[in-house]
Amino acid sequence: MSQALDLLRDLIRCKSVTPANDGALEILQDFLTPLGFECQIVTFDGDGSYPVNNLFATRNRGGRHLLFAGHTDVVPVGDEAAWTHDPFGAEEVDGVMWGRGAVDMKSGVAAFCAALPELVDSGEADNGTISLLITGDEESDAVNGTVKTLQWAKEQGHQFDFGLVGEPSSTEEFGDVVKIGRRGSLSFTITVAGEQGHVAYPHKANNPIPVLSKIAAQLSSEPLDEGNENFQATNLELVTIDVGNSASNVIPASGRMSGNIRFNDLWDAFKLEYWLGQQILKVPANGCDIELKIHHPVSRSFVSNESKDVDLLIETVKKHANITPERSTGGGTSDARFIADYCPVAEFGLVGKSMHQVDEHVPTAMVDRLQAVYTDYVRAFLDQKS
Predict the structure, then answer these.
(1) Which of 41, 109, 239, 357 is the most buried (most CB within 10 A)?
(2) What gap in Å lies between CA 370 and CA 6, rounded to an integer?
(3) Are 161 and 386 in contact (CB under 8 A)?
(4) DSSP characters for 50-100?
(5) Is-catalytic flag, 73?
(6) Which helix (H) or strand (E) holds 164?
(7) Which residue out of 10, 73, 161, 167 is catalytically annotated?
(8) pLDDT tens across 80-131, in order?
C-alpha cells in the first residue's frame, strides 16, 4: 500500500464526526514533523459554537508560500446497519477503500501529505514555503475552524501567495473539474405575525398565512439575475414554511419561512437584504407585522480566474488526467471562501460521487493519482518566481 493509502487508512479509522478529532490531527502532526514542519494544534471556541481543534503546519523556507487547506471532520454515518463495510474500518476490497471520509475529504489530506516526502528528500521543498491548515469543523458550523485559524496565522505573520483546497472537485471522472470560485450563500427567515383566533370567527383574528404564502410566491417568481461569464444565475430556494399549528380550528398567531440564496459576484449581503425587503414590500401586509432576519455570517462569492497559479494547476491536472479540466464555480460552499480573503484559491480533488452517502468509498488508484498531481503542482509552484 502506498504512503497516501497508509495515511488515509489511519485517518478513516478516526471517528472524527464534527467536531470530534479522535486523534486525526495528531496523526498528521506525527507525519509532518519529521519532514521539517512546525506543527501547532490551535483550539478556538465561542461565538455560539463548539470548541474546534485545528492543525496549522508550516515549513518556512522563504520564497513563494503555498497554503494547502482541508478538513478531517466528517458527517455522521447515518444508519450504520445500511453500510456493507464498517464506516470507520477503512477496509480495502478489490482496489477500493471504504469508509466515512474516504472521499470527503480525508483522501485529499492524505494525498497532499504523502506528496511531500519526495519533495523534501530531493531538496525541492526548500525552494519556498509550504503550509497546511487542516480543520476539524468544515462539515458543520465552520465558526471556530478555518476562518479563525487564518486570522491567527495572519497575526503570526504568515502571508500566502496561493491556496489549494483538496475538496473532491471532480464530477464524473478524475480531473474533469477544477473549482476556481464559489457562489456566496445567504440564509434568511421571514416572520409574519397576525392574531390568533377561532376559525369560525375570522373577523376576530388576523390570519398570517395568506400574507406568508404571497411573500413566498413573490420570492419564488422574481429572478435575481441571469448569471455572467464567471457564474451561473443566482437562485433563491425556500426550505421551510411553518406556523407550528396542530389544531384544525385555530387561526395561527404567526408563521415563518426560511430560505437560502446562492449568489454570484453581482451581489453581496447588503444588496440581497435590500432586494428581499423590496420583494416583501410588494405584498400587502393586511395588518400583519413582518420581520426579515438575515443569518450571519454570510458567505461571499469569489473567483480566482486570473491567477497564474490556477493556470499552473490546470496544466498539472491536464498532464495527469489527459483531459482539460473545466474551470467551475458551481456547487455549494467550502472553506475556500475564507481563504479567498487572503489570497487567490482553487480546489482540486477526487471524484465526489459517494461523499456523504452510505458506503462512501474511493478507488485506491485514484488516491495515488491525486498524490502525483499534488507532488508535481507543489514542485512547479515553488519553482516559480514571485
Answers:
(1) 109
(2) 14
(3) yes
(4) EEEEEEEEEE--SSSEEEEEEE--B-----GGG-SS-TTT--EETTEEEST
(5) yes
(6) strand 162-165
(7) 73
(8) 999 999 999 999 999 999 999 999 999 999 999 999 999 999 999 999 999 9
Tell the burial category of 316 from Cβ atoms under 10 Å away from its Cβ (0-12, 13-18, 19+). buried
Exposure string of 212-240, with b = 16+ CB inside 10 Å and e = fewer, is bebbbeebeeeebeeeeebbeebebebee
Which helix (DSSP H) or strand (DSSP E) does residue 111 occupy? helix 106-122
Residue 153, number of CB atoms within 10 A of its CB: 21
Average pLDDT, the chain: 95
Q: Which of 360, 374, 276 is nearest to 105 (CA)?
A: 360
Task: Give the per-residue pLDDT at 87.
Answer: 97
pLDDT at 337: 92
- HEC-encoded secondary structure of 335-386: CHHHHCCCCCEEECCCECCCCCCCCCEEEHHHHHHHHHHHHHHHHHHHHCCC
d(CA 100, CA 8): 11
Neighbour count for residue 383 (Cβ, 10 Å): 13
99 is written with which cell numbers? 469508509
The reported pLDDT for the residue numbered 333 is 81
Is pTM beyond 0.85? Reply is yes
Residue matched to cell numbers 526548500? 126
Of the listed 138, 139, 347, 360, which one is catalytic?
A: 138
Q: Give me the pLDDT at residue 384, please.
A: 85
Q: Which residue has the cell 455572467?
A: 228
Task: Tell me which residues of the chain have a pLDDT lower than 70.
Answer: 1, 385-386
- 3-state helix/strand/coil string of 277-321: HHHHHCCCCCCCEEEEEEEEEEECCEECCCCHHHHHHHHHHHHHH
Q: Is the peptide bond before 355 cis (omega within 30 degrees of 0)?
A: no
| Residue-level length of the chain | 386
Q: What is the pLDDT of residue 386?
A: 56
In the sheet with 96-98, reading across from the earlier edge strand, the strands are 92-93, 96-98, 361-363
Asked if 367 and 110 count as a contact pair (C-beta separation under 8 A), the reply is: yes
Active site residue 341: no
